Every structure is written in C-alpha cells, then in structure tokens.
Amino acid sequence: MTEILRATGLTKVFGSGATEVRAVDDVALTISAGEMVLIMGPSGSGKTTLLTILGGLLRPTSGSVIMDGVDITRLSESELAPVRRQKVGFVFQTFNLWESLSVVENVELVLNMAGKHGRAAKDRARQLLEERGLSRQLRSRTRDLSGGEKQRVSIARALANEPRVLLADEPTANLDSKHGRDVMELLHSISRTGDRAVIVVSHDQRIREIADRVLWLEDGKLKEIGQMVRDPVCGHAVALDAAVQLAYEGHTYYFCSRGCRSEFEAAPAQFIQAAAERVRAEAVPAS
Amino acid sequence: MVPVARRNLFVEKGRFAISVLGVAFAVLLILIVVALYRGWSRTGAVFEQLPGQLWVVQQGTSDPFHSASLLTPEQLQRTADVPGVETVVPVLQRQMTFTVNGGEEQARLMALKIPLSFPLEPELRRQFLPSAGQVVIDTTFSRQSGLDKGDSVQINGVDLTVADVRSPGGDVFSEFAFVSFADAERIFGVGDVVTYGMVVLAPGSDTAAAKAAIEQSTGQKVYTAEEFAHAVRKMIDQTFIPIILILVAIGFVVGAAVVGLTIYTATIERSRDFGVMKAVGASPGFLYRIVLSQAAMLTGAGFVVGLIASLVTADIAARAVPKFATDFQIADLAAVLAASVIMGVVASFLPVRRIVRIDPAMVFRA
Q1: Residues near B9 by beta carbon (within 8 Å), at least 6 away in sequence
Q2: Angle between the N-to-C axes of helices B4-11 and B13-40, in degrees from 0 to 180, rounded to the nearest 10
Q3: Which residue of chain B comes nearest to A58, CA vs CA?
Q4: What pTM value is reported for the model?
Q5: Chain A partners of B279 at a C-beta cutoff of 8 Å?
Q6: Does A86 touch chain B (CB under 8 A)?
C-alpha cells in the first residue's frame, strides 16, 4: 500500500518547568492509502493535539510529519494553507459548518478556496452531497439539519478537494446511535475508495469493529493495542492491559480510572443495568 | 463564487440596516456640507455670466458686495478709448430694500446699460435686461419674499412688476435683482455717475494688456470677471472652508467608525467561522477579501442611501430655508465615493488584524 503519512519522533510540549505538559511524546506513526486508523485513549491523553499536528494546524515541539513526501512541520503558515486545502480533510465533533451559508454553499466554498468556481464547483458540491443522501437539503440552512445530516455535510465538505488524508475528531460523539453508525460506515467506505486514508480519534467502541488498526494514546504515548474493553461507568473504550479492574459477583469489570471504579462500587447494579441497555441499543441494526 | 461576505452581513439584517443608515448619515453630512459650500461658491457668478471680460471699479474697491464704487462718465469714456475695448457698459448696483405686501426684503439691485445693438443671447437679455417697469428676481429671493411672476413690488417709491424668476444665483450674502437702467437711475438718484463699467473687449484682444492699459488710462482699479467674482468668494472660502473641513472630517470619522464597528463585530461573531476557513485551507488573501467585501458592501449601500437622502434633504431644506443653496457636482460625488472606499478600507484594518490572529486549531475545541 502507498504510504501517505509518516510521523517520526513527534513531540508537543505545552508550558514549561513545573507546568510542563507533554501532550504528545515521541510518537511514531505511518499511515497508508486505504487504511482506516482509529486512535483511542482517555480524555486529555493528547488525541486531538496529535490530530491537529498531523493536519498541519499545530506545530510540534519536535519531530516531523511527512505527507506525500513533504515535511509539513517545516512549512510556513502560507505554505501550510494549500496543504490543508488539498491534502487534508477535516471532520469535526461539532461539525463546524458555516451557518450563514446553505448546505451546498458549505461545500462549494472550499472548492472556491482551491480555485474552482462557477458551474463546475456547484456541480461538484451538489454531487458530493447527493452521494451522501442530502439531495433534498441542498438549499437548506445548516441550522435546520439533524446532527447526522450535519456530519454528512461536514464529510462532503472534507472530501471536496479530494484529500489524501481525512482526519475525523470524535465524529460520532454528538450523534445518536443510528446516525453514529451511518457516519462510521460512511468513513469506512471513504477509506476504501480513492487513494486516501482515514484517521479517526474517538471514544466510540463501535468504530473499533470497522477500523483496520486501533492505536491507544495515553499520556502522549502511542501504542498498538489488542483487546479493548468498555468502562461500564463512563462508557469509554479502554485497552484491556491498561484498564483498572474489579471483580464483582463472578464477573470482572474494567474501568478507565480509579474514579470510575469507585463510582461503580457505590452503585454496581445501576451501572450493570445501564451497560446492558447500551449493548442492546447498539445491537439494533441500521435501517 | 459563494457570496460569503453578503451572507455574513445579511445574517443580522437589523444590524446591517442600522449600519447602512450610520454610513448614510456620514455620507449625508459630508455631501450636504460640500454641496452647500459649492452652492454658496456660486456667489458672484453673475459677473461671470455677463458678457464683460473686465470690470472697472473705483480705486480702492475691494469686492462687489462690501465696498462702494462710483465712476464718472469721463472715466467710462477714457476706458472706451483704450485700444481693444469694444464696448463699455455702465452698471448701477446697490443693496436695496424692496417693499413687498407691506413688508420689507433686501436684495442687490443691478442695472446694465447695454445698447440694443449689442449681440446678446436672448436668454441673457431675458435674465439681465428687463423692460422699464419690470424686475427680474431669482428663485431664492422669490421663495424668501413670496414674490412670483406678475407680482408687484415697490423699491424706493418706484413700482415694478416681477417679469421673470431666473434660476438661483446662489449668492449667500444677497440675491441679485435686475431692472432697466432708466428705472435704476430713478431709484438710486445718483445723477450721471455709475457703480462699475463693464468692459467688452474686441475679439482677439489681450485681456491682461487691456486691463493694464485701462488702469493706466483711468487711474481706477480693473478686475477680470473671474477676479471680481473671486473677490467675494474669497470671503466665503476664508470663512467656511475650515468649518467645512472639520465637518467633513467628522463625517469621515463617523462613517469609518460605523463601518469599522460593524465589520469588527461581524468578524468577532464569526471568529469560529473564519477559524474553520483557516483550518480547511483558506489563504489569508481569501479571508481579507471577505472582510473587504463586507466593508465595500456596507459603504456602497451607505453611499447610495446617503446620496439619495442628501438630494431629498437639500430639496426639503431649500423649500424651508431659501438660502440653503446646494450644488451637487459630479466631481464631489466621485470624491465622496472615493472617501467612502477609503473609509471602508481603513475600517477593515482592525478586523483583518483580528483574523490574522485567529488560531485555526481552535476549531477542535468544543
């Protein structure tokens, strides 16, 4: 498979001295075309920081990100703009659509940024949206859309200039289970079509089922993980070997932190029931 | 091209409308003041409209409005004898009280003794050479006094009929009214002396040379028509230009502040949108164009509304206050439009700086 992105010795340090935080610590990562890579980890582990560095939005303290043979960490801000425009597509947790524009204009605008105008841009924007089932919402205001529709517009916008890498930050976090599943499938199919890769940062355990690789980021360090387990209190996915354990009535439960374990110990029945309901809900097939 | 600037402005239609009115007010202020200045600067235009190239006045006469002048027939004859002089027209002129319907009005009465054989355009003859017993007034004086064509007026015991109302003179100090020379002699009662001598030069004559020759021959002061008109305009310039400049500067600052605040507020409110645009690869130039387009739309709309409001205001004001003489010149409109564009560019400075500082990584924060 063609290598699209290679990060080496990637480190990002915020603050200094006693307040120093190593959000990303000597991360090495290689992404190839056709891959869907999921990066998981507890809150504050540096997932979003890593994503913004890979997308050329944040400069690392040290290390390099080679995208299509170019080290984007060495580029000036004006040189980075075309990279973000042409090589990278972003999908955000909060969608970040432009509310003053219509649905089709949201996609058309990024085409305009890349120098595509007029009928060609309009047709391309319309095609991208229609392919994602939004043909009836082309003229709608984005504020009138459901969460799932907004995320599909966001994905269409991210794909407008045919990027090599699609970076998605918690793309299912603000969606119900059905729309979350739709978006997951959409991202999966995107990774399979075209010469591109999809990198997803998420807590959503369901994405693990369709990702080609799952990476675990904790305290800024990245590692490939094997089995993932679900914290019954907060619902976050946790690497089995990194989880805090508790044996209760013949079962072993896994937690992302001691705090969650303590909450569980205070009312175990409540969390066991909630976890069971969550599993049942996720088992409902997509319509 | 997606009209981002228009969409951003129209998201808050109320604010856009208020901002347009703010800019329009600034344009109105600037245009009215400039048009008023232009209107008042027509003071003395009558000396340029009349056919004489030179005006002979008594030595020491500073201007037509604030200085008396008396010339004898001998001085006029010496003027006529100067080579290159074709005709010397005796002129009587004086500020007079008009008795109108029992009330009193002030105007500057003027009479010219132009021979019937002199080739004068019919329109000028109608405006400046009424028949005996008639008076021609201008629209400003007509509005001020209530006099109209066919009305009667008495000046120093002489009864006259308004023969015509000519277009406004724009004389801020006093309007001109024209009577026949014979009537003026009766009204003024100054014998055979006159106020000025209007000199018409023979075709091809050198004006400067003729002026110098007349001054030498008569010992009196000679103005060109432009100089004579300018002698009175000079006072307007000295009095009003500093005031006008201050008012125009205030208008400019008000306009720039309105545009600046609107665009700045719109930019701050849309910081996240601009951040997203930066994140997805918009170049700085692309973003600056949006801000400048917003400013251009605002100033453009404000200019059009301000222009219309200025024309309407000037018309209403002139009806209420006859001396509110305005003159909207194309060059001034173009200058105010250019000033509006500069206003928009200046006002965009802060919003553009704000955009430069937006961190595109902010879009990942919920």
Answers
A1: B16, B266, B294, B297, B298
A2: 100
A3: B361
A4: 0.72
A5: 55, 57, 84, 90, 96
A6: yes
The CA distance from A168 to A94, in Å, is 11
Query: Is A57 in the B-facing interface, judged by CB distances under 8 Å?
Result: yes
* Binary contact (B1, A117; C-beta < 8 A): yes
Pair A215, A224: CB distance under 8 Å: yes
Q: Are B332 and B30 in contact (CB under 8 A)?
A: no
pLDDT digits (tens, 9 = 90+) for B122-163: 888 888 999 999 999 988 888 888 899 999 999 998 999 999
pLDDT in tens, A222-278: 887 766 677 899 877 777 777 899 999 999 999 988 999 999 999 999 999 988 887
- Residue B97 CA to residue B157 CA, distance in Å, equals 10
Contact B361, A57 (CB under 8 A): yes
> Could you tell me which chain B residue has the CA closest to the CA of A163?
B280
Cα(A96)–Cα(A154) distance, integer angstroms: 8
Q: Which residues of B touch A110 (CB under 8 A)?
A: 280-281
Residues of chain A with pLDDT under 50: 284-287
Instruction: Tell me the shortest Cα–Cα distance from A105 to chain B, in angstroms.
Output: 6
Q: Edge to edge, what strands does the sheet with A21-32 contain?
A: A21-32, A3-14, A62-67, A70-71
Matching residue, tokens 């097939």: A285
Q: Do A81 and B282 touch (CB under 8 A)?
A: yes
Q: Are strands A36-40 and A213-218 parallel, antiparallel or unpaired?
A: parallel
For residue B310, the surrounding DSSP H or E stretch is helix B284-320
Contact yes or no for B281 and A86 at CB 8 A = yes
Query: Does residue B276 sit at the A interface (CB-CB below 8 Å)?
Result: yes
Angle, CA of B126, B130 and B134, to the nearest 5°: 130
User: A255: closest CA among A238, A276, A279?
Assistant: A238
Report whether A185 contacts A171 (CB < 8 A).
no
B283 and A84 within 8 Å at the Cβ level: the answer is no
Q: Which uninterrupted H or E stretch holds B209?
A: helix B207-218
SS3 A104: helix
B286 touches chain A (CB under 8 A): yes
A63: left (phi over 0), alpha (psi -120 to 50) or beta: left
Q: What is the DSSP string of A29-61?
A: EEEETT-EEEEE--TTSSHHHHHHHHTTSS--S
CA B366/CA A174 separation, integer angstroms: 11
Judge whether B281 is closer than 8 Å to chain A, CB to CB.
yes
As a whole number of angstroms, the longest Cα–Cα distance in chain A is 66
User: Which chain A residues have a beta carbon less than 8 Å from that of B360?
Assistant: 57, 84
Q: How far is B264 from chain A (nearest CA, A)?
A: 17
Q: Tell me, yes or no, if A114 comes closer than 8 A to chain B by beta carbon.
A: yes
The residues, any chain, with a CB within 8 Å of residue B29's CB and separated by 6 or more, are: B247, B248, B250, B251, B254
Rg (CA), chain B: 29
B331 touches chain A (CB under 8 A): no
